[in-house]
Amino acid sequence: MPKVRKAVIPAAGLGTRFLPATKALAKEMLPIVDKPTIQFIVEEALKSGIEDILVVTGKSKRSIEDHFDSNFELEYNLKEKGKHDLLKLVDETTGIGLHFIRQSHPRGLGDAVLQAKAFVGNEPFVVMLGDDLMEDKTPLTKQLIEDYDKTHASTIAVMKVPHEEVSSYGVIAPQGRGLNGLYSVENFVEKPKPEEAPSDLAIIGRYLLTPEIFDILDKQAPGAGNEIQLTDAIDTLNKTQRVFAREFTGKRFDVGDKFGYMKTSIEYGLNHPQIKDNLKQYIIDLGKKLDKTHKEK
Ligand code: UTP
C-alpha cells in the first residue's frame, strides 16, 4: 500500500467572514501573535511526516508564496545588524517542499481540491484547511495517517459541535464505531438544517482521501451555496469504498471566524514565551475592571 506523503492546503477562499481584512490579504496569512496561520498548518504537515505540500491559492494570495520564499534583502539586513534570532525565524519558512497552484475562481472546497489532481496522482493524500488550527499531543494529520496505515481507507476528522451550529458544517450520519474507535458512516451531508442534521458530529479541517475522489470531483455538480462541495464528493466515494470518520478530541481553533480568531490569538499568546506573562497580567487586570463595571451597573 502506498505511503501518505502529500498534503493539499486549500487557501483560495474569499474569506467573506473576515472582511474587510481579507479584501487584499489572504485569511491564511492572518498572524496568530507573530506567525501566519498557514505556517502552523505547514508545521503540522511536516510533523506528521508529509514530504510534499501543494497550496491552492487564489486572488491576492501572492503573500503566501512570498512568505515561504527567501527574502534576500531582509536576510542580508538582519545579518548585517547581527540580529541572528530574527534571521533564524525568517529562515524557518524557506527550503520547505512547497508547491503552488491557482484556483481561477473560488467555486468551492471541492473545486479547490480538484486543482491538486495532477500533483497527487494515484496516491492517498491529506487535505488540510488553511484556516483551521488543531492542537493535540499527536498532530491530527498524523492520527489520520496512522488510521490509513491500518485501514487503507479514507478517513475524515469530525468533532462534536453545538447542535445550533451544524448548519455551518458538513455533518456525518454515523453507523457505529469499530476498528480503532473509527466511525463507519452512512451519509455525509453538507450544511444541514439543525432539525434535519443526522448528528452533531461535524467535519473539521483535516481529511485523508484516496485518489478516487478526483474522478468524483470531476463530475461533481454544485451543492449547498452553489459551490462544488467536497462533502458531496466524499458521500459519493463512501458508496463505492469505505470512508471512516475519526472523532478529534483535541482543541480546534477556527481562525477564519472573527471571534474564533480572537480566541486563538489570546490562547496562543498565553503560551508565547515573549508575551505570555504580560498578556496574562493584562487579562487578569481587564477581568477585574470588567467585573467592577458589571457590578456598578
Ligand atoms: P471556507 O468556507 O472557510 O472559506 O472554506 P471561505 O469561503 O474563504 O470563507 P468565508 O466563509 O467566505 O469566510 C474552507 C477552506 O477552503 C478554502 C478556504 O480558503 C478555506 O481555507 N477554499 C474555499 C478554497 O480554497 N476555495 C474555495 O473555492 C472555497
Automatic annotation (TrEMBL):
Belongs to the UDPGP type 2 family. It catalyses: alpha-D-glucose 1-phosphate + UTP + H(+) = UDP-alpha-D-glucose + diphosphate. Transmembrane segments: none annotated. This is UTP--glucose-1-phosphate uridylyltransferase. It comes from the Bacteria. Its EC number is 2.7.7.9. The keyword Nucleotidyltransferase applies. The keyword Nucleotidyltransferase applies. Residues 6-263 form the Nucleotidyl transferase domain. Pathway: Carbohydrate metabolism; nucleotide-sugar metabolism. SUPFAM superfamilies: Nucleotide-diphospho-sugar transferases. Keywords: Nucleotidyltransferase, Transferase. The gene is galU. It comes from Streptococcus oricebi. GO terms for molecular function: nucleotidyltransferase activity.
